[in-house]
Design brief:
By secondary structure, the protein is an alpha+beta fold. It folds into three domains: 43 residues, Orthogonal Bundle (Arc Repressor Mutant, subunit A); 273 residues, Alpha-Beta Plaits (2-Layer Sandwich), CATH 3.30.70.3460; 42 residues, Arc Repressor Mutant, subunit A. The protein contains twelve helices and 16 strands. It starts with 10 loop residues before the first helix and ends with a helix.
């Protein structure tokens, strides 16, 4: 048999995706009841979307309440050292996303969660990568946690079961938005540690699989289900350690679509807030983070190639109107093996604090480069 052809999402798929976003992937029975279908059909459709559209169900940890500060980093690789650089960029337990990228920065893009107080050491790690001759340049942006943008059904035409892209309507909508950002896009006052070791273990398991049962987590942890339920409810949920469930899917044909990271800059907080709020329910946005201390946001965006130019045209119009000050972007490589996301390592959290061994990170980096160069 030949390769399976790309199959479009249909109305039921979209209803299930929106329900997953509203009720979470741990409530399939509730989703089935709300949609008036049986649970087995919900499971079948989810498995179908996993196969055809790379659907994955994660949790988005609110790292701020774990004492972790997000860093978005661009690496401009030295030609010929891209593969070695990829292996050097991972800091076990603290690199949560890494992807090959192309564009202004030809190399890699990484998202790190660094324990508060170790920001300078992390930047020294980045400088060491440059000293070792693996990159021409690195650029780091410290940011808030990233706000999850889950499917809402907006811009999906239920009659034709196709996506529509009303770009002009979108830019006319932006000035009408409010200015109160969700807490995830507000500069934190502090980065408190509100978790214990059991909480970190639970979060790590949910990052691997958001549908794992608390009973299975209890077995892995070697403790009672009652204890895990208590920590999940009283700590993970009530202390705000979990921002949201992330319903990640490629809704448009991957053969003719690209994944990007954009940085949008504004000359006022009001403009930044209105623009950000206009993206929160759009199907081409996956997540957003605000650059700390600046009127700028980073957004992960997925678009069909034919719509990308139209999107850029709209950004140009926003600039002409004095709304958008500037933007830049890189294209991600979404081929298998060119990117990964990693869960937290619970063994790096002891007695209420993170173990961030800067000297070991530097030595491991030097040893790897010495071995491979």
């Amino acid at each position: 048999m030949g390769k399976r052809l790309y199959t479009k999402l249909d109305n039921l798929d979209m209803q299930i995706l929106v329900a997953l976003a509203n009720y979470g992937p741990r409530n399939l029975t509730k989703i089935a009841r709300k949609l008036s279908i049986n649970t087995e059909l919900v499971r079948f459709r989810i498995n179908r979307m996993v196969s055809l559209f790379s659907l994955s169900l994660h949790i988005n940890v609110y790292h701020t309440n774990l004492g972790l500060k997000k860093a978005f980093v661009l690496f401009d690789a030295i030609l010929g050292y891209e593969d070695l650089l990829f292996r050097c960029l991972e800091i076990k337990g603290f690199c949560i996303y890494l992807s090959r990228c192309y564009g202004v920065f030809e190399g890699y893009v990484g998202i790190y969660a660094i324990p508060k107080g170790h920001e300078t050491e992390f930047e020294e790690f980045l400088q060491e990568i440059q000293k070792l001759g693996l990159v021409r340049d690195t650029k780091v942006f410290w940011s808030t946690c990233w706000h999850t943008v889950n499917p809402t059904g907006k811009w999906f035409d239920s009659q034709s079961e196709t996506w529509i892209f009303p770009w002009v309507e979108w830019i006319e909508e932006i000035p009408t938005k409010g200015t109160e950002l969700p807490y995830t896009l507000v500069d934190p006052m502090d980065f408190p540690v509100k978790a214990d070791e059991i909480d970190i273990f639970i979060l790590g398991e949910l990052e691997k699989d958001a549908t794992i049962s608390l009973n299975d987590i209890a077995k892995k942890l070697g403790t009672s289900i009652q204890r895990v339920k208590y920590h999940y409810k009283k700590h993970v949920i009530e202390r705000g350690l979990l921002e949201d469930f992330q319903i990640f899917i490629f809704p448009f044909d991957r053969k003719v679509s690209d994944l990007y990271f954009f940085i949008f800059e504004f000359d006022s907080r009001e403009k930044m807030a209105k623009f950000s709020l206009s993206l929160i329910d759009k199907p081409f946005v996956y997540s957003m983070g605000k650059i700390l201390g600046e009127n700028a946001v980073i957004a992960q965006i997925y678009l069909p190639k034919l719509e990308f130019r139209k999107f850029i045209d709209m950004l140009s119009k926003l600039s002409n109107r004095g709304f958008l000050q500037d933007y830049s972007y890189v294209i991600q490589d979404i081929r298998p093996g060119m990117w990964f996301r990693e869960e937290m390592h619970h063994e790096l959290f002891k007695d209420g604090s993170w173990i961030y061994d800067h000297k070991k990170h530097i030595q491991d980096l030097r040893n790897l480069v010495k071995l491979k160069k």
